[in-house]
Structures are given as structure tokens and as C-alpha cells.
Design brief:
Blueprint lengths: L1 E3 L8 E4 L4 E6 L2 E9 L7 H13 E11 L4 H6 L22 H11 L6 E8 L2 E2 L8 E2 L6 E4 L13 H12 L11 E4 L13 H6 L5 E7 L5 H19 L2 E4 L5 H9 L3 E4 L3 E4 L6 E7 L6 E3 L4 E5 L3 E6 L2 E10 L8 E6 L2 E6 L2 E5 L2 E5 L4 E5 L15 E2 L15 E8 L2 E10 L6
Parallel strand pairs: 4-5, 4-6, 6-11, 7-8, 9-10, 15-19, 22-27
Antiparallel strand pairs: 1-2, 2-3, 3-5, 5-12, 9-11, 13-14, 13-16, 17-18, 18-19, 20-21, 20-23, 23-25, 24-26, 26-27
The structure holds zinc ion (ZN).
């Protein structure tokens, strides 16, 4: 297990198990610990985007929140329920040759941790659960909009042993904040021990057999957007935290508009210590990106960020969504680590490599001798080196921007044949300053 501390994750520590990421958020005041799994099924984005928002946008002040946003990592990438057979049916027995064996072991290790008081497994399920059959969408066999329990009560004593009561409280709370009336939540008791053979192999049943209160939250696959599913997942998780006495803050108001914006946000990527790029509005293909031939080091601020590297390119994903393809231009890399001097809109500034700078009118870079600057899309072919030249947005060709708005451009520094790093020139409108 590797541990990273990232400056962008001040309030949590990211642990990387071999098969998934694990975020530990600990309050200053001690209290109960809630463990959450998102993405055990790769085609249920409500669960994994909600878990990733918890990891990025929530601070815990009392108690602890442990989050695995990408439990079934490769299935998320392929937007498949499960690549190697249903992962949520492997908890009672699993063969030694099963490809998910290590993941299952790591999940069990977390669930059985002494600190864990309650476990949630996040899903998007079919239809809308109703006690009486209405049609193929609204019926007692549907999973959508339910808080699922395996039995009414845990077999042994526990502060949160009353699974039925807790699930009902959570459903009642959710029903006070419905986006549409037919989204109403219900408790679905699978009565696993007595009848449901299939659920005996599930994550939640494994948990309750280790005396850990455990629930599945199922939003409906029939909801129109991922962000609607995320909205209900977050409301349900907050209801659980309230019941457990876990206190939290989030950096946004929980309404459907904000959840939509946050679900769509992609964060940033850092590559090889010399490229740093905001992934918002990125073009589908970016050409001639200075990279190594292989084993490029990529770090995402988004918990669901993934890179798939091939010979000539790297594909960039958030969850199952492909954001962009970076076509490689192979350059030896040199960590210049320099601060370069530039004049932005008439003011002298020191600019770190890599970074993004905001410009209203123009920028002029100065650099120590021996460096070369290539601004991608600069029109004047007389120059092979744009150091010392005033670069305004009007002198750049829009189709060379990194974003679809034609606002952000690449300024690349080279020393001899090696690539030093990139500065993104972000031309903002005057009234945005
Ligand atoms: Zn599922």
C-alpha cells in the first residue's frame, strides 16, 4: 500500500491500495467511522461520482469518513457492470484464480477494520421499487430508489444494529427532498438469510456477518441524468452521517444545479512535473504533446481520473468518459525547475514552470540564454523562438488552443533538444478580471 499526500487534498489522506484508491477523512473530534464503496459495478455512475465528490468536496469535523470511489476500477473505465463476473457476488467464496481475488481481499480488509462502524455500498438499480406491481418500471422487483437491507436487525449487539429503523429514517429524509414525486425512496429488505441465495454472496451480507451494519443505496438507472443519481446518493450519505453523529462541511450548497456542475467538473492533470493542465473544455484531440515514449507519470486531481497509454498517444478519462487523446511528440525531458520572468499586461511577473497564467492583452517571456519558446498556434512564421516577443490572443490561431473555447494556449520551453515545461496562456476577457 502506497500513501500519497497531495497539496490539493489538505483534508484527507489518499492511500492507494493495489486495486483501488482509498480516502481517509478524519475529524478533529473523535466519533463514528463510515466506510463507503462506490463503483463496485462499473456502469452505475451515480455511486462512483457521488463517492468522488465526497472525497473532493467534503471536510469532516467530527468522526471519520472512509471512501473508496473506484472499487471496480477497470469496469468503470469500460462502463461494464463487471469485467470478470459480478464483483458483488464474490464475497462468500471466490476461486484462487479469480481476477478479482486481490480486490475482494482488500475490500474485506477494510470492512473488518476495527474502527469501521457502518458500511455503505453505492449502486444505481433498475426501475423504481414499489410494494405493488404497476408495470415493468414500478414494481416490487425493482431496485431503484431504495435503501437495501439484508435483515431487520444485526444478529449481535451494536450501536447501529437496527438496520430496518435506520433505513426507514434515511428514506424518510430523502423523501423530503425529491426532485420529482415519483422518485420516492423505500426500504427494500432482501431477507437474505432466509430466502435470497444470490445476495448471500454480496458485500453487504459479508459485512453484516462480521457484525458491521451495512446498507446498499440504490438510485434509479431510470433517472434522466447522472447528476440526479449523484444528488440522491449524497442526500442518503448525509442522512447516514447525521444518524451516526458524523459532522461535516461541504464547499457547495446541495441542490440539483450545483450537483450538476460539480459532477461535470474534471479537475486538473499533472504530467512528468512539466505539464499542468486544467481538464475543463479540453479539445478531443491534442497533438504534439511533448511526452516520453512510455511510462509517463500522470496525476489527476479527480479521484476518477485514469490514463490509458499506448505507443503514440495517451487517452484521458474521468470515470468512463473519455475526455481527450494526447498525441505524443517524443522529447527527452529536462526538469529545468526554473522560474521564468514575463511581462503580463505590462507588469513584470515571475512564472513557475509548469503553470497557467491569466492574460488580458498580451505576454512577453524572457528566459535565460539557451532556451527556446514555442507558442503553439503563433502565426508569424518568421520566428522560430518566441522569447522576447509580445504574444496577444489576436496573434494566435484559434484551432491550436487546448480548449474548445479558443481561450487557452500552450507555451512550451525547450533547452537544446529537451523539453523543459509548459505554461498555459489563458486569455480572459477584460470584464472577467
Ligand atoms: Zn449495482
Amino acid at each position: 500500500m502506497r500513501i500519497f499526500t497531495l497539496s490539493l487534498l489538505l483534508t484527507s489522506i489518499l492511500f492507494s491500495f493495489d486495486n483501488f484508491d482509498f480516502y481517509k477523512k478524519e475529524g478533529n473530534v473523535s466519533g463514528a467511522t463510515l466506510l463507503i464503496f462506490g463503483g463496485i459495478h462499473g456502469n452505475e455512475p451515480g455511486g462512483y461520482f457521488a463517492a468522488s465528490i465526497l472525497a473532493q468536496h467534503y471536510t469532516i469535523t467530527k468522526g471519520n469518513l472512509w471512501i473508496v470511489p473506484n472499487t471496480n476500477k477497470d469496469s468503470i473505465l469500460h462502463y461494464k457492470r463487471s469485467l470478470h463476473g459480478d464483483m458483488n457476488r464474490k464475497f462468500s467464496n471466490i476461486s484462487n484464480s479469480d481476477k478479482d481475488l486481490d480486490t475482494i481481499k482488500e475490500i474485506k480488509e477494510l470492512i473488518t477494520s476495527q474502527e469501521v462502524d457502518l458500511v455503505l455500498n453505492l449502486h444505481d438499480g433498475h426501475g423504481f421499487f414499489r410494494q405493488k406491481y404497476q408495470n415493468t418500471i414500478f414494481n416490487p422487483g425493482a431496485w431503484g430508489q431504495t435503501c437495501v437491507i439484508d435483515q431487520i436487525k444485526l444478529d449481535n449487539n451494536h450501536s447501529f444494529a437496527d438496520l430496518g429503523c435506520i433505513a426507514q429514517k434515511v428514506s424518510d429524509k430523502l423523501n423530503q427532498h425529491l426532485l420529482q414525486e415519483h422518485h420516492g425512496f423505500n426500504v427494500r429488505n432482501t431477507k437474505t438469510k432466509k430466502k435470497n441465495n444470490e445476495m448471500k454472496h454480496s458485500l453487504t451480507y459479508f459485512a453484516i456477518n462480521h457484525n458491521k451494519p451495512s446498507f446498499a443505496i440504490e438510485t434509479s438507472k431510470e433517472l434522466r441524468t447522472t447528476s440526479q443519481k449523484v444528488y440522491y446518493q449524497l442526500r442518503a450519505i448525509e442522512a447516514f452521517m447525521q444518524i451516526m453523529g458524523i459532522q461535516y462541511k461541504r464547499d457547495f450548497e446541495l441542490d440539483s444545479k450545483n450537483v450538476k456542475d460539480i459532477t461535470k467538473s474534471r479537475g486538473k492533470i499533472a504530467i512528468n512535473n512539466n505539464i499542468s493542465l486544467n481538464l475543463g473544455n479540453l479539445r478531443k484531440i491534442l497533438r504534439y504533446i511533448p511526452l516520453q515514449s512510455n511510462k509517463n507519470r500522470l496525476y489527476f486531481s479527480h479521484p476518477l481520473g485514469r490514463a490509458v497509454e499506448a505507443d503514440g498517444f495517451i487517452d484521458i478519462y474521468i470515470g468512463h468518459k473519455k475526455i481527450s487523446r494526447f498525441k505524443k511528440a517524443i522529447f527527452p525531458l529536462l526538469e529545468c525547475g526554473n522560474n521564468f520572468e514575463a511581462i503580463i499586461d505590462g507588469n513584470k511577473k515571475s512564472i513557475h514552470l509548469p503553470s497557467e497564467v491569466r492574460i488580458i492583452d498580451d505576454i512577453v517571456f524572457n528566459a535565460p540564454q539557451g532556451h527556446r519558446l514555442n507558442v503553439i498556434g503563433y502565426t508569424d512564421v518568421r520566428y522560430k523562438n518566441e522569447l522576447g516577443i509580445k504574444i496577444a490572443k489576436s496573434s494566435l490561431i484559434k484551432r491550436f488552443s487546448v480548449d474548445t473555447e479558443g481561450q487557452r494556449f500552450r507555451a512550451e520551453f525547450y533547452k537544446g533538444d529537451t523539453f523543459c515545461g509548459m505554461v498555459i496562456l489563458n486569455y480572459v476577457a477584460r470584464n472577467n478580471e
